[in-house]
Amino acid sequence: MRTFFTLCLLFISLCVKAQDIPEVTVKNLAGDDISTSEFKNSKDIKVISFWATWCVPCINELDAISEIYQDWQDETNVEVIAISTDDARTRRRVKPLINGKDWEFKIYVDENQDLKRALNINILPYVIIVKDGKIIHTRTGYTPGSEEELFEIVKQHTD
Amino acid sequence: MKKLTTLIIFLSFVSLGHCQLIENLRVGLEVNAAWYNDDKNTGPFFDSDNQDSDKHLRANSYLKLDYDFLKNFTATVQLESYEPLALLNYSPNFDGTNLGIYSLNYRNKKLEATVGHFYEQFGSGLILRSWEDRQLGVNNALLGGRVNYSILGELSITALYGKQRVGFKTSDGEIFGANIEYDLSKSLGFSESSISLGLSYVGRKQVIDVMNPKYNKLTNSFSGRLDYSKNSFYAGLEYVYKSEDAAVLAGQLINQFVNPGSALLINTGFSKKGFGLDATFRRLENMAFFSDREKAGNIYLENNVNFTPALTKQHDYLLTNIFVYQAQSQVVFADPQLTEVGEIGGQVDMYYNIRKDTPLGGKYGTKLAVNASYWSGLKGNYDFNNLSYDVDYLGFGEKYFSDISLEVRKKWSSKLNTIFYYVNQYYNQRAIEDNFSGEQIQTNILALESMHRLGSKGKSLRLVAQKLWSNSDNHDWIGGVVEYNFNTKFSIYANDIYNSGDDADTTETHYYNFGGSYTKGASRFSLNYGRQRAGLVCVGGVCRFVPEATGLSASFLYSF
Fold first, then answer.
1. Chain A CA closest to residue B12
2. In Å, how far is A159's CA from the nearest CA of chain B?
């Protein structure tokens, strides 16, 4: 079994390329369906963070980005999208939390985790950077300072 | 079967051959392995689920492939391996290596159709939810077919049929479902406010093998939902009715104990910049709903048709997760003094941002979060001997749980952030755990966390100190966490909790863990050694009991 996985992995890693963002429907805070194909329609770089209200490192990351978001936007046209993967237990906390925290990000909800599953996300937080509908960078987990690395990548890809 | 599957998958890989094909392929790999050892303090290794004490090394592996082709199609397979046996506490139905999930999906702007396995949720899941959580060992995907059609973004209709996944097999019971979501705003000409309506039906059909059954093999449930929002205000209502069905007491179907069930959920909130308020009320009566009746209340969370999570704050610190509430949706008639048919209660959340450059806000502002929840049994008359009950609709009975918490997040400088966290809890162990000798435990818990940035390359230190005081002689806990991040990729940590109370299971035992992780992009490798406390493992609102274990564990995640 282990050899099998190793083989798969070796084979796949030889072929890694920028992936298209899969087409899945998420909801905005008003409950309207939003297709992820809308993320492809803009030239601007998007930083998409998958988070949950109960995930402390996720909140730490979004708080940290929130504080420097104005600087990011002054320098580039980057847009930060925070996609909540909260399920029925905690989903109702999303709206008051983002307002209470004064986050300026665009917020979507992936309640039964269709997008999370399509991207094979196992643990949170999970960040992808998307340009022209292609995923150019992914990162899992948060440690203080990771947000600066993210911005470095955004700047590198800004025309 | 095992070899065959491996061969098929491997051949399909080889035949793909070209990287162009791989471009439309998304891959996720997860391997969680453990080596359990005997523990001088807590005893030798023993796996009670599989009655095994020899297989110390275990691994759960998942390889998921999604392949997009012909513009509108996606094929998905998930190969799973539990060799030689699954990690401790997983259902013995996860056994060997096999295809766990396979599906073919077609999708255009209006129509979506799936055959094979699929995950679905109607409303908030009170009537139907199929989902996966590998940490909890939950995968109740439906195997069958589903069609969804939407018209003008206003109306969406779903119909589905399937049997639930149970390990590598499926349930005996069959599930039928239909759902309508209708956005009324446009039809009513609302522009500033939004109003939407949802209606669902879920049926579960399972053959009955008792003589003269007093219930039908088909159990019908209906749900109606209404959601409204305008500017900073929103409100929602959800009601579920479940038709008469036999109760399951201690794993036994009771033919002469037949009742309908219902659920009511009301939610409202108000939020604007810097402030958010949310309140939820919920009442559940006899809402255990399983694809196979006799599986009601099983510890592995298998065959769950609906989703009734505890509506309390999910805390994230070690000591705040010792006494965790679990929703009481099921009928329990264990003893004349221990009878339950549901729960009633609610919670309130408040978020507030104290602006920067104010006396309390300081230079960077201060963020507050407050939560309070209260849950109790349904008030009424319970007739233990005749197996009947008569409960009030809005009566609060025996108190089960309450929780008040306050979180203060403060940034002091570009180098230092702190979190102050306080929780006061009431935990009715007897009712929540159906434990005859359970106590009424009241606790006060304090956690202090600080994050220090050391230099610019992501070097940082995180410290957490925690203390739990209680009214019980059995529980007096202390705990701590140290985490050091060398950079944004490499981290190490150690934590420990210790009970100086008299609780026979945990007294004077260190539950410690230490380890490290390396992250690069979406790949992550972690290694950990430690002793796991017997208790609840909770992820996203659902908890599962796990026994004590000591060992070395390793985890590898990879996706693209």
1. A8
2. 23
Whether A100 and B559 lie within 8 Å, measured CB to CB: no
- Give the helix/strand (H/E) hosting B73: strand B73-83
- In-domain check, residue A11: no
In this structure, chain A runs to a length of 159
Looking at the DSSP assignment, which residues form a beta bridge with residue B229? B194, B234
Among the partner-chain residues B232, B309, B460, the one whose CB lies closest to the CB of A145 is B460
Measured CA to CA in angstroms, residue B427 lies from A119, B375, B376 at distances of 39, 10, 11
As for the ipTM of the complex, it is 0.83
Residue B213 vs residues B207, B209, B218, B246, B404: alpha-carbon distances, Å: 11, 8, 12, 9, 46
Examine residue B486 and state whether it is found in any structural domain, yes or no.
no
User: What is the Cα Rg of chain A in Å?
Assistant: 16
Residue B337, Cα to own-chain centre: how many angstroms? 30
In the block, tokens 């806000």 appear at B361
**Of A137, A156, A143, nearest in space to A47 by CA:** A137
* Residuewise pLDDT in 10s, chain A (159 residues): 555 555 555 555 555 556 788 888 899 888 888 888 888 877 789 999 999 988 888 998 999 999 899 999 999 989 999 999 988 778 888 988 998 888 999 999 998 889 999 998 888 899 999 998 888 999 888 888 889 899 999 999 887
Test B353 with A101 for CB contact under 8 angstroms: yes
Strands (E), B70-187: 73-83, 96-107, 111-118, 121-122, 128-129, 132-133, 138-139, 142-151, 155-166, 169-183
Interchain CB contacts (distance < 8 Å): A and B: 222
List the single residue in B22, B365, B367 with the smallest CB-CB distance to A15: B22
In a domain, B214, yes or no: yes
Is residue B475 within 8 Å of B442, Cβ to Cβ? no
Query: Phi then psi for A16, rounded to 5 degrees?
Result: -65, 130
Query: Which pair of structure tokens corresponds to residue B366?
Result: 């201060």
Residue B416 within any structural domain of the chain: no
Please give the tally of structural domains in chain A. 1
Q: Do B19 and A17 touch (CB under 8 A)?
A: yes
Chain A residues within 8 A of B227 when measuring between CB atoms: 31
For the record, the structure tokens of B499 come out as 């009970």
Domain total in chain B: 1
Residue B201 lies in a domain: yes
**Residue A23 located in a structural domain:** yes
Residue with tokens 């599930």: B175
Range of the domain at B152: 108-272
Three-state secondary-structure class, residue A83: strand
Nearest-angstrom CA–CA distance, B348 and B323: 19
Domain carrying residue A152? 19-156
What is the b/e burial string over B388-409, where b = at least 16 CB atoms within 10 angstroms of the residue's CB?
ebebeeeeebeebbbbbbebbb
Cα separation of B285 and B359, whole Å? 48
Minimal-distance CA residue of chain B relative to A124: B522
CB contact under 8 A, B519 and A4: no
Q: Which residue among B68, B74, B277 places its CB closest to the CB of A96?
A: B277
Within a domain: A6: no
Q: Is residue A102 part of a domain?
A: yes
Question: What CATH number has the domain bearing residue A96?
Answer: 3.40.30.10
H/E run at residue B299: none
